[in-house]
Amino acid sequence: MPHTPPSLNRRHLLQTGLGAAAWAATAGVSAMAASPGTPDLSKVTLRVGTYKGLWRALIAASGQGNTPYRIEWRELNNGVLHIEALNGDALDLGSGSEIPALFAARQKAQVRFIAVVREDLNNQVTLARKDAPIQRIADLKGKRVGYVRATTSHYYLSKQLAEAGLSFADITAINLTPADGLSAFDRGDLDAWAIYGYNGQLARLRYGARVIKTGVGYLSGNFPIYANPRAVDDPARHAAISDYLLRLRRAYQWANGSYLDYARAQSAETRVPVGDLIELWNSRSTDYDLRPVDDAVVQGHQAVADTFLQLGVLHGPAQVAPLWDRSFKNVLRPFAIDKAA
Fold first, then answer.
1. Does 155 lie in the same domain as 268?
2. For FRET with 284, which of 5, 126, 176, 252 sits at 20 to 30 Å CA-CA?
3. Whether residues 112 and 155 fall in one domain
4. Helix locations, the chain, DSSP H
5. CA distances (Å), 113 to each of 17, 105, 116, 146, 251, in order?
6. Mean pLDDT, residues 77-102 taken together
7. One domain for residues 260 and 201
8. Is residue 1 part of a domain?
9. Average pLDDT over residues 135-154
């Protein structure tokens, strides 16, 4: 039987009551959403983009998979692919960071951003090799630093450098995919690496990498849910998306209080050891949260767009506000009230 870390046990005991309360509250919202005029969801198929080990595993493990509509899962493992599939009418829902959404705004893609997931920023890290003479961001001057262009790592690294009085011109910046970056880190081809997710964990566990900075204070922590405007404008699919958002919210609340079970479901899809997932969870910056669109969300996204314009990543200004859709705000509003209570 898998060993359960003591910190997880304590958190589980403390949060189970809270998770149950949130579950009951949101279940009531879902019931109230039904009415005689509700479209027949049994005839709806939602094409939903997922990442390996994320929404598909989360919905199933949390018991939220018994939907009144059909879900057709499509695994697409970066936000750009989600945007492209939505723009090409091959997907109804997807997700990713704020960064691919910038290019969608710039290119006037057919996509809407309908809610935000709040996620951990401690897994967005700037790492130094264990033997490198790097203790702070200022020490990156003249060093070989890996990053992933036009992603969150590009953004927070630029912010961290600026804070230390540096820019990309002061380092040897090397754009690498996460997998290539891990290999380069292993070979010693990098002195430091700005990376997100499990690859940063591997660099720490396998190669003794040291965390110099995390994304906390540099990233908003908002990860948009992307939607196909054709689905948003269709009454039946709009109703199905509303139901899906409620289920996803309940699933995230369940995961906050039952992370060991979710980690097992993630591990089954990703083959990442459960213990590694638990370690990431126990060092997280925040619990999962699903929030409606508000002015602060849109303003924060515009600030990211303005920064990328200054960095020369965008070839012209991107106005993000027109792509943010607030038509699901009332569906998610009771959650905001519950959280504030």
1. no
2. 176
3. no
4. 6-33, 55-61, 79-87, 98-106, 152-163, 178-187, 198-207, 229-233, 235-257, 259-270, 274-282, 295-311, 329-340
5. 32, 11, 8, 30, 20
6. 92
7. no
8. no
9. 95
